[in-house]
UniProtKB/TrEMBL annotation:
Coiled coil: none
Compartments it resides in: Cell membrane
Keyword Cell membrane: yes
Species annotation: Saccharopolyspora flava
Segments traversing the membrane: 15-36, 56-76, 88-109, 184-206, 241-263, 275-294, 306-324, 330-352, 364-384, 396-416
Protein name: Na+/melibiose symporter
Length: 438
């Protein structure tokens, strides 16, 4: 199979744009939950606890969604590699949208007691199950449509879409957070979740028009596809799965920034909600431009130097950002926040969609990425609650920054041990090394 003609027939731009829009819609749903957990869920679903414990429980409910992600990865990874990428992408946007709308319809603890947080957690688990297949499916779709020499650039659109979803989620909450406290708690927090009904319709329309990837179509035509892709994945590519698991803990930078830091700034330091939300909006706007630029650089000089540089930068700048929050200086906060999340973290986000997928051959690619990333992301999902537990007060940010830096170090070790793949032809990805070589 030759990369050039095949990629041309696969319409890489169409696949990349569809991945961008679909991920933006899906992760709007996923991240409005994190914002609500940081700002209001401690009052609505966990009101009998003292304020600190209520915040910890609300952030833990955010992390619960990540528990379902490994399960979703196994199920949706199998479906994607056995029956096609398109089916996974249609299913994930439908499940995410419906479960998010239902969160906005939940009665509060005051009305139905413990059943309220129980239902909240159940719907969060459905969100996590859906998210497990979203990025792996979109990344596989984009990578397999892309020209070999531009794989990172085209797959990076999935993560640009994720950042756009965060922008949309935060932007929707800006006027909501400005409501009087009684209106915010009574009904305002529900509006962003109800808007997900639009997400369901738009996502289904966009993804139903996608073409299946040429790689998968060729496997079906030549009967190469695996009926049980998880068996050869763990038999022949366990090292790649393990490496992706360890590398994926870098996602903790995102959850610490978007959830813990928001809670720390508002609930511990006492900063105003609206300006701190704007930090996230502006950082994500910068990331929209930075992610494809970092990806293009990795197409030229390699995945590993860009990825490792981004991880090391995150370890350093997390100290600067959390310290800036403790000072209350908005100039420092905006500068450090945009540098950390808008610029440096984008280097990792621009690379991993291609780099992780390039570790596996097509027959197990979606499964390998889904299982590896979602187990690693599970730790990232609980990072805000871990940070809340180890932080403890205004000066607790140092412990949180050290915790985050340790996770960045794990990522650097995993990435440094991997094979450089940016010049490997698409048809040869995942095939050159022996199955048991790490």
């Amino acid at each position: 199979m030759t990369d050039g003609p095949r990629a041309t027939r696969g319409k890489p731009r169409k696949a990349a744009i569809a991945a961008w829009i679909g991920s933006a819609l899906e992760y709007y749903d996923f991240f409005i939950y994190g914002t609500a957990a940081a700002l209001v869920f401690n009052k609505i679903f966990f009101p009998t606890s003292d304020p600190a414990t209520g915040t910890l429980l609300a952030l833990a409910s955010f992390g619960v969604g990540y528990l379902a992600r490994p399960i979703g990865a196994f199920v949706l990874g199998h479906i994607g590699d056995a029956f096609g990428r398109k089916r996974v992408l249609v299913f994930t946007v439908l499940l995410m949208g419906i479960s998010t709308v239902l969160v906005g319809c939940l009665p509060t603890y005051e009305r139905i007691g413990l059943a309220a947080p129980a239902l909240l957690v159940a719907l969060r688990l459905l969100q996590g199950f859906s998210a497990a297949g979203e990025q792996a499916g979109a990344n596989s779709m984009s990578l397999e449509h892309a020209p070999a020499h531009r794989r990172a650039y085209f797959t990076s659109f999935t993560l640009s879409g994720t950042q756009a979803g965060q922008i949309l989620a935060t932007a929707v909450f800006l006027p909501i957070a400005a409501l009087p406290e009684d209106q915010l708690v009574a009904w305002g927090w529900r509006v962003p979740f109800w808007l997900s009904g639009i997400v369901v319709i738009a996502g289904l329309v966009i993804r139903s028009k996608l073409d299946e990837t040429p790689v998968f179509v060729e496997e079906v035509a030549e009967t190469k596809r695996e009926k049980t892709p998880l068996l050869p994945l763990f038999r022949d590519h366990w090292a790649g799965v393990l490496r992706v698991i360890v590398a994926s803990v870098i996602a903790a930078v995102s959850t610490i920034f978007t959830v813990y830091a928001l809670s720390y700034a508002v609930n511990t330091v006492g900063l105003a909600k609206t300006p701190i939300l704007w930090v996230g909006v502006l950082a994500n706007v910068v990331a929209l431009a930075a992610i494809p630029l970092w990806a293009r650089l990795s197409d030229r000089i390699g995945r590993k130097p860009v990825f490792i540089g981004g991880s090391a930068g995150c370890a350093v700048l997390m100290f600067a950002y959390l310290w800036s929050l403790s000072t209350g200086s908005w100039v420092l906060i905006f500068t450090a926040g945009i540098a950390l999340f808008g610029v440096v973290y984008s280097a990792t986000n621009g690379i991993w969609p291609a780099f992780y997928g390039e570790m596996f051959p097509a027959k197990v690619r979606l499964s390998g990425m889904a299982v590896g990333t979602q187990i690693g992301f599970a730790l990232a999902g609980f990072s805000p609650s871990i940070a809340e537990a180890i932080g403890g007060g205004r000066d607790g940010w140092i412990s949180v920054a050290l915790f985050t830096a340790g996770l960045c170090a794990l990522n650097i070790i995993a990435v440094a041990s991997a094979r450089e793949t940016h010049e490997v032809p698409t048809a040869e990805l995942g095939l050159r090394r022996t199955p048991t070589t790490v």
